[in-house]
Amino acid sequence: MSFVTKPGRRYPKDARMDDAGDLPHGLRAIPEFPVAGRRWAIAACLAPQAFHGVHWTMWSALACGVLLLVVLAGYLRQNRRWRLEIKRGREKLEALVQSRTRELEGKESQLRLLLESTAEAIYGIDMEGNCAFCNPACLRLTGYERAEELLGKNMHDQIHHSRQDGSVYPVAECFIFQAFQKGTGTHITGEVMWRADGSSFPAEYWPYPQRRANEVVGAVVTLLDITESRRVEEQLRLAQASVEEASDAVSWLDSQGHILYVNEAACRSLGRSREVTCCAVNHRYRSGFDGRSLGHNVGKGQNPGFDHF
After folding, report:
1. 133 and 194 fall within a common domain
2. Calpha distance 139→159 (Å, rounded)
3. Residue ranges making up the domain that contains 130
4. Measuring CA to CA, which residue among 155, 154, 150, 143 is closest to residue 205?
5. pLDDT for 7-35, tens place per residue?
6. What does pTM read for this prediction?
């Protein structure tokens, strides 16, 4: 902005002066003060004569009132439209949430039914090793009465804390812990699990990592008590050892006459190796063979038709 200078003061160019002095119209100055050898004054505020009253006519006031009513009505109408849109959006969102909730409840119910009806013990753990869920078979197998006794507790400390000889089983060496640490599943036999009463049982288990959006968030463990299968295996081992060491010739055949097993005495009686004998087929007993007569003949050292191989 350009200024013109009068002795002792500076004003905007083309400023209109009032009748009271040489200040611009509507301005009032403070007393002069010297600066750098010159005297200055600052216009600080409007003088009272700068304000002029506004005179309204009846028609201008009416027009202004109508304009205000139109603006207010438009605002109210728009506000009502916004509120209706918000209400419809909220109702739509609530319906979507309810539908999604029912869908999730249905899936959860189906999963719960599956877990409760399966014979295998199944439990899940989070990244800290704490129990997230367990099915009734898991409770029965580990000797707990209620799921609350396991939920939120470290499963390694509850059922996998010691080895078969009673020594401490470090969690860092636990295959279940490694399942979600390495992100790979495994199959383990030959270890024991511990019940709530302090007893143990030989176990076979499958720990597999649980993922959400390609990120490991825990592990799911399927657990079996193999006490009975171990007992049967031991009985079969003893029976096979007894048959193998028997002095009588013994052979096992299926319904098609395929030789499944022969003991050492049978191999000596037939003059053939075990590999050759087990690959052969006894045509005499290929259909409707009588195992008792076969055992009787072999027991007597007779050749029960092996010459037809």
Report:
1. yes
2. 11
3. 121-229
4. 155
5. 444 444 454 444 445 555 555 555 566 76
6. 0.52
